[in-house]
What we know:
Blueprint: E1 6-13, H1 17-28, E2 33-36, E3 53-55, H2 66-83, E4 88-89, E5 93-97, H3 111-122, E6 127-130, H4 131-137, E7 148-152, E8 156-158, H5 160-173, E9 177-179, E10 184-190, E11 193-198, E12 201-210, H6 216-220, E13 229-239, H7 245-249, E14 253-257, E15 265-268, E16 277-281, H8 301-311, E17 324-332, E18 340-343, E19 346-352, H9 363-376, H10 392-396
Parallel strand pairs: 1-2, 1-12, 2-9, 5-14, 12-19
Antiparallel strand pairs: 3-8, 4-8, 5-7, 6-7, 10-11, 11-12, 13-16, 13-17, 14-15, 15-16, 18-19
Helix pairs in contact: 1-5, 1-9, 2-9
Amino acid sequence: MAGSVxxxxxxxxxxxxMGAAALYQLAKRGVRAIGIDRFAPPHDQGSxxxxxxxxxxxxxxxxxxxxxxxxxxxxxxELEAETGERLLTQNGCLIIGSEALRAEGSVRVDFLARTLxxxxxxxxxxxxxxxxxxxxxxxxxxxxxxxIGYLEPGGGYLNPERCVAAQLARAxxxxxxxxxxxxxxxxxxxxxxVRIATDHGEIEAGQAVVSAGSWAPALLGPPVxxxxxxxxxxxxxxxxxxxxxxxxxxxxxxxxxxxxxASDFFYxxxxxxxxxxxxxxxxxxxxxxxxxxxxxxxxxxxxxxxxDKHLAGRLEGLRPDAAKSITCLYTVTPDSNFLIxxxxxxxxxxxxxxxxxxxxxxxxxxxxxxxxLMTTGGSAVDxxxxxxxxxxxVNAA
Length: 397
């Protein structure tokens, strides 16, 4: 009836990578849950789109991520068995760089060396290749003398749109409510729950998970909003030349760190069957973006800059002009690590992973951990490295 308020045990706000995974895992546990999104996931307005996302097992951003990556791979395979969808392709991951290279910033420091340490610590199968061996086995990669490659056969890529769609479909089938095209206006904790105001009425829940990506800062308020910076990112698809078409179709995913600057880094994928293109991208963190006003149009100078800064002299067999380019959003923390913790002023609101551009590979396991937190108060994977307490400014607030 008019004016009625829907009531749930848990509300998940934002149904991208983390939210879709959390809603699915809550529904598996019989939790009365609702998922809310201002768009209709999977969509192209946030961080979870663009055909492919790299997944790895040894994680150069830090060994603490490895359990999340390994568990996520198990969950993707379980989902494939449940749905018949192909979500995870393990075609290998090649990381090229120099063990001696120390990049600026925190998350990329010693990226290749930390990847190797993680592989050794967790017994992850891999090979180390010198530049000549990289060029011999993968003629599309023009590795320079002094560079080495870390080749992980268990790495590969995920299809983000299929992953989100599969988890939301399973969540619905297991009893979860999904409301799309519904914008959350405010979240307020009071009494024994959380009241969520939307542009389609109010919702009450015992707890709330905020996994709204670039829209999270406005919803969460201080002091969390000061730690989350939405940034505009661009992905490009370059046509493949005929002479190396087979090499690109059979290529591993790749990550290439070629300098000490924070932006001296790019990554890419094989040529997907029938596409005739290779997707590749760098990362840009110089400016923040308003997710409601971000420039979605990609100017002609942007793919040229990508080619000149990163691809030239490194990738072979690609035509110089991009076939298409699209934007997405990363929401980054000051140290580029995840943020998964209770709001410091509202203990019934869980902030879930504005994940700084390297989170999709971990999202399935994070969703499981969130569901465990919501139902038991703890999680099988240690989430303490992603707590708010590491930021002095929050502690002092």
